[in-house]
Design goal:
Length: 359
Amino acid sequence: MDLVSVIVPVYNVEKYLYRCVNSIRNQTYRNLEIILVDDGSPDNCGQMCDQLSKEDDRIKVVHKKNAGLGFARNSGLEVVTGRYVTFIDSDDWLDLSHIENLYSAVTGAGADVCIGGHTIVSELGEKTVHPAKLEQKTYQGNAVVEQVLLPLIGPEPDYPNDVQLEPSCCMSLYDMRIIREHQLRFLSERYAASEDLYFNMEYFHYARSVVVTGETGYFYFVNNQSISRKYKPEQFDRTLRFYTEATGRIRQYGLEDKAGIRLDRSYLMRVRVLIRQIAMSDMRFQDKRKGMEDILEHPQTKSILNSYPVDSYIPAMRILVKQMKHRRLLAVYWMIRFREMGQKTGWLKEVFHRFGIKR
């Protein structure tokens, strides 16, 4: 059995760290290297990591100055000795057979990487299963580009959802030979949004075989207390860099014609997320208006809104995006506010049902 390395960036999670690490230690797949990267955590996580390493000789600890999630993963990659590697966020945890299932799938298919799904867990313990939104099979050669890499960049206009393939690296098992050969590393999320996406774009560009499994034993914990109600302008700066970085890779791969419109949709989705965050924040209304205006009046946003086939969206989303396109700030603001209130009270769902509107 091959050695599998598990990289866990650790920062300010002393409440959840043991749950995460113990779920790895107790895996049915035993031949593990567990790398805990203490990213300059201000709480007791550093000491907890050291204690865990004394309890289990499979655990390595890397202490470093705080630099964020992406660079913490890079620090883990520097010391990996396993044939395969996967990543876990330190407030999440794994089903006991998760790694064994991923390993069996990737080796059984002779693939370069195995993609799995995940299960979202709320603070109340409510679970929602999210299988990977790709057919469960092995993709080879050009099919890796057409059916894996392109959906990762973004869905086509007629796809019903904004995300077709999750960009997260945490639900996959990667072959370290490709990572080493091409010196793949993560960008900093403090520089550009969606640091997982660029890593996966590069990896799938080089991969020749990808297997998708029905495994959903990665438990993604939604901690509402960690969700910020603040908005900072640098969040939009990171979104602009996301578009620039992803565009550069698309050009490098010669995929402009196929991937351009997919990336545009991904950009618009991220813009809507930022605008929603502004609308639902505790900022003063005039500051909210200014924040939305800065985003919607930006040349990049205007260009994409003017060229994207907005009518391809489902009805409710189409109306919102058209208001964004024409910079009707008050309409955008109140549509988001009413939608959020409606989702909380349930009345909006009833309206959609009565009028046969698909959200």
